[in-house]
Structure formats: structure tokens, C-alpha cells
Amino acid sequence: MSDPVSDPVREREAPFFIGWATIPEGLRWFLGGIAIGLVVLLAGLSYLTAATQDDPGDGAFMGRADAVGLLQAAPYPILHVTQSDSFAPGTALMLTGNGKRGAQPQADAFDGQLVAVSGARISRGDIIALQLRGGENGISAAPEQTGASLPQPRDLGRWRITGEICDGKCYSGAMRPGRGLAHKACANLCLIGGIPPVFVATDKIDGTEFFMLADQDGGPVTEHVLNHVATLVEIEGSVERHGAMAVFRIDPATLRLAQ
Amino acid sequence: MESAQTLLMAGQVYVWIGLAVAVVFLGWGLDRIDAKGHGSWMFRPLLVPGVILIWPLVLWRWQVLARENDNLQNRHRPPLTTQRLMGLGLVLAIPVLIAGALLLRQDGPLERPAVMLETAAETSSNE
Q1: In which domain, by residue range, is B65 found?
Q2: Among A22, A42, B66, B96, fewest CB within 10 Å belongs to which?
Q3: Between residues 6 and 35 of chain A, which touch chain B (CB distance below 8 Å)?
Q4: How far apart are CA A253 and CA A216, in angstroms?
């Protein structure tokens, strides 16, 4: 009995697939099965991959918005709205720049002053960010309003909180997902660029689970948290209310991975 | 941050060495291993990015050709001899890596309550 592989007659008669040629009769069912099998397999894999992802939340860009309010430059730029068609008075807006840049350079000159801001609204639940337009289109001095002053910080005590450090812009809805390991590099680049870090806690304090992070003196804390972004961590520090914005003044020495 | 800086530094060192290799190889070494390259200069700048990218391979091939040890039959032998082993290694390593990443990744605590360490009054009295 001859070996079918080395039998030149049988080898010549064996169907041979060429991409651009008519499919040989003997290969039609085989190739059809492979094609359908691949579609089913890839569709199943796609479904399983998508189904095992965490819900990215409902945060998104919500269109153009304008507001007038009092600007607080530290730890990161916050606008306490006094007048706006888009936001209720008292709303605290986290201000950011375009792309991965913070709004600190634009905001510093207006610390404590009444300003008019304009930009793209990004919101997710009760956390709202405003991506400022460039230059004076984004932020400019507004006429004085009687009785308008920055809200006094209200001390809520010292806490140990578990949660994740995210960048405020992506978490608010600029990216989906805006949290978790898959987003770690993006979050770090945003934070390095000056976007405010926010702490998304596993528990609510004074009705909120979002906290803008600050150091113990109330200043920016970005450089101390970069190695701990996107994982669940435990931090100790004091929580304050600055109007509608909760600020978590952390002690970076207490920062550790949550076990 | 330190890990990122180390990686960036390693990448920069690799690129600078690659540039040095490109200058020496394209300016001097190429003529000694490829007779067809004599007197031709315009194409050499086009090779700079490629040399920077794969300079270890360029150095290896350069020394093989310079010592006239090259054997056309053996040219692709090292990759081919290990190809089967590498394929098998990947078949084993990829599922182990994915399963390991899924098993070792942090999974909670997602609902740990916040702990009050000091009340507002205590905090202000300590300051």
C-alpha cells in the first residue's frame, strides 16, 4: 500500500485552496464550517470580554456650559457657582484645561475673585467638571456681586477611607472607563498635566463618595499619589466641605494598598 | 514614578546607542561588508531609523559578515531552530499569564466602610 502523501497521483488530485481561485468541491463544506465557526467563536469571545468588564458609568461630555461664580484656586481650581443657566447656585465645578492639562495657570490669577467661565461640561453623578475654553474665552473677571464670598470650609473630622485615586476629568466622563487598572497610565498622565486627583470612596461621608484630594495643608498633592493611582488604597486624613465640594486632606504617609 | 523614569531612561539610552551605531555602521562599516554600497550615500540616511531600532541585530550581522563567517544556508537557522520551541512556549505562557493576571488582580474590598478617627471637634482642638 502506497503512502498517500508520497503518492504523486493522489497528491495531484487532492483539493488545494487558492484564495483567488474557485473553491474546490471537496473543500467547500470544510471552509464553510471554518468560516461560520470563526464568526461564532469571535462573537462569543467578544461577548464574554465585554460582559466581564466593569460598568464604565454614565459620565460623559454634556455640551457647552457657562457660569459665573467664585473661584477657589487651591488645592486645585474649583468654581462655586453663583449664577448660571446650566448649574444650580452653590454647585461646585472642578475646572480643567484642554486635553490632559489642568486649569491652574488660568485660575491662579483669579483666586478668590468672581469670574465668568465657559467650557464643556463633563458630569457623572454628583461630580461635575468643566473643561475651560482657551484664554479669556474660558475664564475672565466678572462684575462684582454683593454678598458673594467663598464658602468657609466645614470640618467633617479625621477619617480612614478606602477607595481609588482617579483623575477628576476622566472619572467625570471624559474617558470610559475613567477608572481601574486599564486606565492607570492615562490617569497618571492627566494628573501630571495638572488635572485634579479625586478620591472615589467605597463609602459615603456627608452624603458623598467623591473627594478632591489635597495635602495636609490644603495644597496640591499630586506628586505624592502618582504611584497609587487606579488601585484600591486606604488613606487617612481630614475631610472638609468647601461649599458643595468635599475635600480630603490626606496624610500621604498613611497611603497603603487596601487588603 | 521611578519605574516609569527608569523605563524612559532605558529607552533613551537604547536610542542614543542606536544612533551611534547608525553613524558608524552607515558611515564606515557598510562599505566593508557590502561591495554594492560603495559610493552610494543617498540611501544611507533612510536606514538610520531602522538601524536605531534594531542596532543589536545590526552589530551581530556586521561582525558575522566582517569575519566572513556568513553561510547563506545558516542565515536563518537560529530563529528557525527555536521557532517550534518558542511557539510551544507561547501556547503555554499566554494562558498562564492571562489566568495569573485574573487570579492575582486586586478584587476589592469594594464596600469597606469609612472609619472616623477623630470628630471635627477633636480635630480642631488638636490644631
Answers
A1: 1-72
A2: A22
A3: none
A4: 11
> Please, where are the H alpha helices in A14-75?
28-51
Cβ of A205 within 8 Å of Cβ of B110? The answer is no
Asked, for residue B32, whether it belongs to a domain, the answer is yes
Residue B122 lies in a domain: no
The whole-number mean pLDDT for each consecutive block of 10 residues of chain A, a chain of 259 residues, reads 58 81 89 96 94 85 95 96 94 96 94 95 93 92 84 95 96 91 93 96 94 96 94 96 96 93
| DSSP annotation string for B75-100 | TTHHHHHHHHHHHHHHHHHHHHHHHH
Instruction: Tell whether B121 is covered by a domain.
Output: no
pTM of the model: 0.72
What is the separation, in whole angstroms, between the first and last Cα of chain A? 68
Q: Do A202 and B123 touch (CB under 8 A)?
A: no
CA distance B54 to B69: 21
CB pair distance less than 8 Å for B122 and A232:
no
Q: How many CB pairs under 8 A join A and B?
A: 59
Give the side-chain half-sphere CA count within 13 A for A235: 31
What domains does chain A contain, in order, with CATH numbers?
60-141 (2.40.50), 154-257 (no CATH)
Within-domain flag for B111: no
For residues A248 and A75, give the distance between their C-alpha atoms in angstroms, rounded to a whole number: 10
ipTM, 2 dp: 0.75
Q: Do A158 and B122 touch (CB under 8 A)?
A: yes
Amino acid at A213: L
